[in-house]
């Protein structure tokens, strides 16, 4: 893998509509077999009880595992085939960090895992999923530049 590939994935992540329009305070760092996604919490991510909504846990965990997997795939975009999350603690402030790792790989299918930490380093959720290669080439058309 190359640093250029990781940087292109980072730019692709940050330029995605979802991240630009909704998750405007995200950060990303991708290296071989790992990805770290950061998010500064604001109230717009909260449910009615004043803590982070489960969809945000899912997005951060899935994104971290996904990009850890795609760090090892240089020709095509991968897709999430399945992903399971586990909630450990509610979060209502601070900066979150999702750390994803590539655990297993074959020619077509990959296992990615991720953990979500609050700003004190406490595990607040974790997940794992299966990812597969798509037929969509990594290209400038999808933000890979």
- State Rg: 15 Å
Order of helices and strands: HHEEHEEEE
| β-strand number | 6
CATH fold node name: Thiol Ester Dehydrase, Chain A
**What portion of the residues fall into strands of 2 or more residues?**
35-45%
Q: Low-confidence parts, pLDDT < 50 over ≥5 residues?
A: none
Binned, the helix content reads 10-25%
The count of helical stretches stands at 3
| N-to-C CA distance | 16 Å
- Name the structural class: alpha+beta
Could you characterize what this model shows?
This protein is of the alpha+beta class. The protein has one domain (3-142): Thiol Ester Dehydrase, Chain A, CATH 3.10.129. Helices cover 24% and strands 41% of the residues. It starts with a helix and ends in an 8-residue tail after the last strand.
Can you give keywords for this protein?
24% helix, alpha+beta, 3 helices, Thiol Ester Dehydrase, Chain A, 145 residues, 6-stranded antiparallel beta sheet
């Amino acid at each position: 893998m190359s640093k250029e590939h990781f940087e292109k994935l980072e730019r692709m992540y940050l330029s995605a509509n979802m991240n630009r329009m909704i998750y405007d305070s995200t950060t990303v760092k991708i290296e071989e077999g790992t990805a770290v996604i950061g998010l500064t919490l604001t109230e717009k991510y909260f449910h009615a009880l004043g803590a982070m909504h489960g969809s945000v846990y899912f997005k951060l965990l899935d994104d971290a595992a996904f990009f850890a997997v795609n760090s090892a795939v240089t020709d095509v975009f991968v897709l999430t085939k399945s992903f399971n999350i586990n909630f450990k603690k509610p979060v209502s402030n601070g900066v979150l960090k999702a750390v994803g790792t590539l655990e297993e790989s074959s020619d077509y299918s990959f296992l990615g895992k991720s953990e979500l930490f609050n700003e004190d380093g406490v595990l607040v959720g974790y997940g794992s999923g299966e990812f597969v290669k798509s037929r969509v080439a990594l290209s400038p058309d999808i933000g890979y530049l």
